[in-house]
Amino acid sequence: MGKTNNSLSQLALQKFKKNFWGVFSFCIIVFIGLISVFAYVLAPDNSQNANQMHLSIHSKKPGFKVKMLTLPLNIQSDESMIEKVFFGKRTQVSEIPISSYTIKDNHLVYTEYASDGLEGLIKEIPLDTFPNQDAESYIEERTFIFGTDKYGRDYLSRIIIGSRISFFIGFIAVFISLVIGVAMGSLSGYYGGKVDAAVMWLINVTWSIPTLLLVIAITLALGKGFWQVFIAVGLTMWVEVARVVRGQIISVKEMQYVTAARALGFNDFRIITRHILPNIMAPIIVISAANFAGAILIESGLSFLGIGAQPPMASWGAMIKDHYSYIILGKPYLAIIPGLCIMVLVMSFMLIGNALRDALDVKTA
């Protein structure tokens, strides 16, 4: 039996490898996953939530360059390296965009950056502010690859860090939906009768409520926040899993290997978990891939409505909400870039779901 399962798994893996779009989508998902895990290592602005604001350079086009003066704030940090890598650094410097500077009479004289052809304010600070009075080493030309948002934050950094919510909500929401859906579907399909009627009534009631409306209601009940959105999305996606599991168990619970397990005296929990569920994993895996895509879209919709991840936390949906009006103001890229990121991630999960469906279908050669 073990050799048969192993050979079937190898056959499915070989079929999956032959699917170009499935492998390509898998590579994209792994790539985005690595970016989301090491977001603060890769982001040019590695402050918490990439929230360094420079209002004088707001809404600049991709490739914008400006001289940036960094003023040390002499704030001691007790953050560990792990905290900096995975959660970002607390702001310990003050950054000022400047257009020009000179050193005169032991003072750094600089002109603040001003857009639209305006003249910026001229200010000066003593060289003693900088270690070893080396002011020039604290001035660098910075390039904003994706430009800046309406608050003057580095847009590339916000996109990179925003991938965390869109990516991890899929895992957490799908995990919650699998735990609830598999449990409810197993009880309903295996025992039938009144248990089946009760579970199906609950499924139908939940299914009849629009998903977005139900998520909004759960979110408002739990409160606005990062984890609340994850839980709310997961609690609305279990019905599809439960219906699939119920249908699969009904079709296999009278098969010979289940009857043999009952004859050997195994309890119902062992029969369901050790004998039935491993044999119906293929459709569960496929619907989980689809639920990944659905969870990402729901979270993006919630963030767009303002009840998802809250500022200053970066989220692709919230970035579209903040900048959708810029589409008619000649700067559509501020809304298009996060929209394309959502589209690529969702499409990757949908394509990998289709590839898994074909690979796990024993009827195909």
TrEMBL record:
Entry keyword set: Cell membrane, Membrane, Transmembrane, Transmembrane helix, Transport
Transmembrane regions listed in the UniProt entry: 20-43, 165-187, 199-220, 276-298, 333-356
Membrane topology note: Multi-pass membrane protein
CDD domains, A to Z: TM_PBP2 (cd06261)
UniProt keyword Zinc, yes or no: no
Top-rank taxon, per record: Bacteria
Keyword Cell membrane set for record: yes
InterPro entries cross-referenced by the UniProt entry: BP-dependent_transpt_permease, MetI-like, MetI-like_sf, OppC_N
ABC transmembrane type-1 domain segment(s): 163-353
Subcellular location: Cell membrane
Family: Belongs to the binding-protein-dependent transport system permease family.
PANTHER family: D,D-DIPEPTIDE TRANSPORT SYSTEM PERMEASE PROTEIN DDPC-RELATED (PTHR43386:SF1), OLIGOPEPTIDE TRANSPORT SYSTEM PERMEASE PROTEIN APPC (PTHR43386)
Identification of the protein by name: ABC transporter permease
Lineage: Bacteria, Pseudomonadati, Bacteroidota, Flavobacteriia, Flavobacteriales
